[in-house]
Amino acid sequence: MPVAVGPYGQTQPSCFDRVKMGFMMGFAVGMAAGAMFGTFSCLRSRKTMMQSGGTFGTFMAIGMGIRC
């Protein structure tokens, strides 16, 4: 599979890198949303943040995978 080269000789990220980046962005956004909604219950806050981050990160990774 040929590697796309950008205007300044830079290589474009691979499909796996894009999926990984989408998951990380989604995880960060989900963690922030979980922090906002999870602050009401201090003991479950971390659990809510991780669940929200994982769910949103998975959907972002799927979306990036479809775009490849």
Automatic annotation (TrEMBL):
Keywords, sorted A to Z: Membrane, Transmembrane, Transmembrane helix
Transmembrane parts of this sequence: 23-43
Role of this protein: Induces production of reactive oxygen species (ROS) which are necessary for cell proliferation. May play a role in inducing oxidative DNA damage and replicative senescence. May play a role in the coordination of mitochondrial morphology and cell proliferation.
Protein's name according to its UniProt entry: Reactive oxygen species modulator 1
GO cellular component, one term: TIM23 mitochondrial import inner membrane translocase complex
Gene name of the record: ROMO1
Phylogenetic classification of the source organism: Eukaryota, Metazoa, Chordata, Craniata, Vertebrata
Entry's localization field: Membrane
Keyword Nucleus attached: no
Source species of the chain: Lates calcarifer
InterPro entries: Romo1/Mgr2
GO terms of biological process kind: protein import into mitochondrial matrix; protein insertion into mitochondrial inner membrane
Source species, domain of life: Eukaryota
Family the entry assigns: Belongs to the MGR2 family.
